[in-house]
Design a protein that fits this description.
Largest sheet: 9 strands, mixed
Structural class: alpha+beta
CATH topology of the largest domain: Rossmann fold
CATH architecture of the largest domain: 3-Layer(aba) Sandwich
Number of helices: 27
CATH superfamily of the largest domain: P-loop containing nucleotide triphosphate hydrolases
Strand order of the largest sheet: 5-4-6-7-3-8-9-10-11
Shape: elongated
């Protein structure tokens, strides 16, 4: 039996058989002074009994308690969002420990910061059980008729006591609505409070008279809905008077004032914000990816004159508000686990468990109904469910490739399509606990910031060809071309990374496949390659959505030669004449004509590259920052095409840097490497402390398990040598998921390197990929890492690996005595060795 505790009103204590340790007491009142009438006797009694009294202050109303030495006051800031607020309260309750007594400000005041009844209910749902476990007594209040029935029902279900308080004709009445685990024949009648007495009102005439005098309202709309409904009325006002209303709505859709917020305020009107809000499912922020896409489109529409309007494909996206993410966690009972994972010691420890749970939860019925209505709108059009977290696609933090995007082919019965959609949403949510995302937040100092996950749902751009659905082309674009290989190239003209079909191959480093790099100052210019290598360094596989299989698939290019693409296929592919000639020479005439995806006619005969160059230039000018976009394009003819701008974000770069004077190289044997082009990071002169080199032949001989062990060991060295200038050289592609193509490190395992080099080894079969524009590239650029590809054996390229291998290998010293991989991983001190690069002459040198 829990100890009985007094409310400070002895007569009312008898009505409810006293309070119990663990009770949460919610007062439903008409005003803050009414609530204060109940707080004062409770606090006075608690202090008289020597209880530890805590006041949690967050409301804009007058303080409920005056400052006093015996009362601990905590000020918690609700403007920082639900998670920060709930975590702060959890932390202070944990600190105060067992049997503390609490007074909380009115929960209704949170509406002005969160605009969401749902999140107030979520806060109560996560805080109330914790207070109960610690044998506390906590007083809360909500203002009558200010919340939805659903919010009140959730509070009633969670709390131990729910009490209606009325002030009628100067008299105070308390009407208990819920008193957990206590009962008397008169408990749930209204009671008149006279000093310390509580008089039960049982006569029907008196009860009817009391309740008929109390104003009652019908179903209360969610505060969020009310705010947007009122904003519609402001559309009739002059533009200047609309501005404060617009900014108020932006605070709850876009976030706190920031550089991105101000850009949005500059380009979005109140009507724009209301149109966006009309397509939101649930409540909360839209997230960075949605905001970036919407802002970029608005810039092109507003500042581009008529240049882009004809070429832009309309969008009809939906946005799953960030509040759904927290509601999903709270209502499935995982908030305590989430709180433990947010601590420094639990950050990695509890993430796998939370990730597994996020893949298996249930959504509330109200959210499920909204999901269904959205899917009914899309019908059987393929859709993509994309992450749009609060920190994503902002200045300085792209989170490129860290969270999932899931294609839904969206075929089958409504029930099957709904199930696939829910699974996709869960997958995106679970990706917040993925290793790459955790590492990214840790290395960029974002662990303590709220990373709420909103979701962008887009209709997949494209059309149906045979049984497949895909866009003609897709890719990424950058307004600054930092990866240049010819001194005549214009850095500010921008570049594209272009593929045929879905854009997945444009953002990933794919096995045996290469996206087309397009320099927008001269779209026909090819990256450096040997004669006859154009086929080798081109795209061979195409990603599509198979409507018959209801799934994402990749197909060989040859399958598309027979497809009716509804436009001349010569825009995208040409006959591979070199292969045709070779086949003829050996007498083979029975083989289908081979094609190569070179995009020659697209880049030379259409307005597409010029349009993309102008688009990137305008967006970069407005952002006053380099930008990175994702796009698709679909063609009806050479001159009739539509570009779908899917994403736009600031692209963090460190610029070209000052011109560097390169040392004279009298003998090519006097350097570790030198070359022309194939580097990224501007003009540099970097003195090295250490060099780590992975020997290609020795690496090739390892088992797959041992190749992964090499990657993990690189991660150890990355941590041990943090703060040093380290150059990491290895065979093929860093960060590949396929060990036969290179070392399968996660980016966090190479994030502290000053220089990363990918070395070609013809004998071992390793080849770098100049993956400008991929997610790997984004990580390198954001981290300020200098990148170089060393094509050993090509003209103007020198690589003297022996100058590293002939030095003492100190791997054991650097990795805590572990030298099992010393024959593969060479770590050498590099005192006096420097790396130089010069953009003008396109020279890179390590000497």
């Amino acid at each position: 039996m829990h100890d009985r505790v007094s409310t400070g009103i002895s007569g009312f204590d008898r009505v409810i058989d006293g309070l119990r340790l663990g009770d949460n007491v919610v007062w439903q009142v008409d005003s803050i002074p009414d609530y204060q009438r109940m707080v004062e006797p409770y606090v006075m009694q608690a202090l008289k009994e020597g209880r530890r009294m805590v006041y949690v202050r967050f409301g804009s109303h007058e303080p409920l308690l005056q400052d006093a030495a015996e009362i601990q006051v905590y000020h918690v800031d609700p403007t920082l969002g639900f998670e920060h607020f709930a975590t702060e309260v959890h932390t202070l309750v944990e600190r105060e420990g067992k049997k503390a007594f609490y007074v909380f400000d009115s929960l209704t005041d949170l509406l002005q910061y969160w605009y969401s009844d749902l999140m107030i209910g979520n806060f109560f749902r996560v805080s109330c059980p914790f207070l109960y476990e610690l044998d506390t007594i906590a007083y809360f209040a909500i203002i009558r008729n200010a919340h939805t029935y659903g919010t009140i029902a959730g509070i009633r279900e969670t709390t131990q006591l729910l009490l209606d308080l009325y002030l009628v004709n100067g008299r105070i009445y308390i009407h208990p609505l819920k008193v957990w685990q206590r009962y008397s024949p008169t408990m749930f009648f209204p009671h008149l409070i006279r000093g310390n007495e509580a008089v039960c009102i049982t006569a029907s005439s008196e009860v009817a008279e009391l309740f008929s005098s109390v104003e009652r309202k019908g179903e209360r709309l969610d505060y969020w809905t009310v705010a947007f409904d009122r904003a519609h009325e402001a559309l009739t006002l002059p533009p200047k008077q609309q501005e404060p209303v617009k900014r108020s709505l932006m605070n709850i859709l876009i976030g706190r004032p920031s550089r991105m917020f101000e850009l949005c305020a500059r380009y979005f009107s109140l009507a724009d914000i209301l149109a966006i809000a009309s397509r939101e499912v649930g409540t909360g922020f839209l997230g960075g990816k949605s905001v970036g896409m919407l802002l970029a489109r608005k810039i092109l529409e507003k500042d581009g004159g008529n240049r882009f309007l004809h070429f832009l494909e309309p969008h009809d996206s939906f946005y799953l508000g960030s509040d759904i993410f927290y509601t999903y966690i709270v209502q499935n009972g995982w908030w305590r686990l989430r709180t433990k994972q947010k601590t420094r010691e639990g950050y990695y420890k509890y993430a796998p468990d939370l990730q597994e749970k996020l893949l298996q939860g249930m959504f509330p019925n109200t959210i499920r109904e909204q999901f269904m209505q959205m899917l009914e709108y899309f019908g059987q059009s393929p859709i993509i469910v994309r992450s749009s977290s609060l920190l994503e696609d902002d200045f300085g933090n792209s989170f490129s490739g860290k969270y999932e995007s899931v294609f839904c082919a969206n075929q089958g019965s409504p029930e099957e399509r709904y199930e696939a959609f829910e699974k996709a949403v869960r997958t995106v949510y679970a990706s917040t606990m993925g290793e790459d995302a955790l590492d990214y937040r840790m290395t960029r100092g974002l662990v303590d910031q709220d990373e709420q996950m909103a979701i962008l749902v887009q209709r997949v751009s494209g059309d149906q060809y045979e049984d497949d659905y895909f866009p003609h082309i897709a890719g990424v674009g950058n307004s600054s071309n930092l990866y240049i290989w010819d001194k005549t190239m214009d850095i500010d003209a921008g570049m594209l990374r272009l593929v045929f079909g879905l854009g997945t191959r444009a953002v990933d480093r794919t096995v045996g496949d290469y996206a087309r790099i397009v320099c927008l100052d001269d779209p026909s210019r090819l990256p450096p390659m040997s004669y006859g290598d154009e086929k080798k360094f081109s795209q061979h596989m195409v990603d599509v959505l198979s409507l018959s299989e209801n799934a994402w698939r990749n197909r060989v290019l040859e399958e598309f030669v027979s497809y009716d693409l509804k436009v001349d296929r010569a825009l995208f592919m040409s006959v591979d004449s070199q292969t045709v000639n070779r086949l003829r020479e050996i007498g083979r005439t029975d083989i289908k004509v081979p094609y190569i995806l070179d995009f020659r006619n697209l880049l030379n005969e259409t307005e597409f590259p010029a349009l993309m160059k102008e688009m990137l230039a305008l967006l970069s000018t407005v952002y006053d920052y380099p930008v990175d976009i994702e796009f698709t394009a679909n063609f009806k003819s050479e001159s009739n095409f539509r570009v779908n701008l899917l994403q736009c974000r600031p692209l963090q770069t460190r610029g070209l840097g000052r011109t560097v004077e390169l040392p004279y190289l009298a003998d090519v044997n006097d350097c570790i490497f030198s070359g022309k082009g194939n580097f990224m990071g501007g003009n540099v002169r970097i003195p090295l402390d250490f060099i780590i080199y992975i020997s290609p032949q020795e690496y090739l001989q390892l088992s797959e398990q041992d190749k992964h062990a090499v990657a993990r060991q690189i991660g150890v060295l990355n941590s041990r040598l943090k703060g040093k200038n380290v150059m990491l050289l290895g065979p093929g592609r860093w960060g590949t998921t396929t060990p036969m193509l290179g070392v399968p490190v996660r980016f966090a395992e190479i994030s502290n390197m000053a220089i990363i080099g990918e070395v070609a080894s013809m004998e071992a079969g390793f080849m770098p990929e100049l993956s400008y524009g991929s997610h790997f590239f984004q990580d390198i650029v954001e981290s300020g890492i200098f990148y170089v590809a060393i094509f050993d054996g090509q003209k103007d390229v020198v690589f003297n690996a022996h100058r590293i291998l002939d030095q003492e290998n100190v791997i054991a010293e650097m990795s805590g005595g572990n030298d099992q991989l010393a024959h593969v991983i060479h770590v050498v001190a590099a005192s006096g060795i420097e790396v130089y690069s010069d953009i003008t002459t396109q020279t890179v040198l390590c000497k």
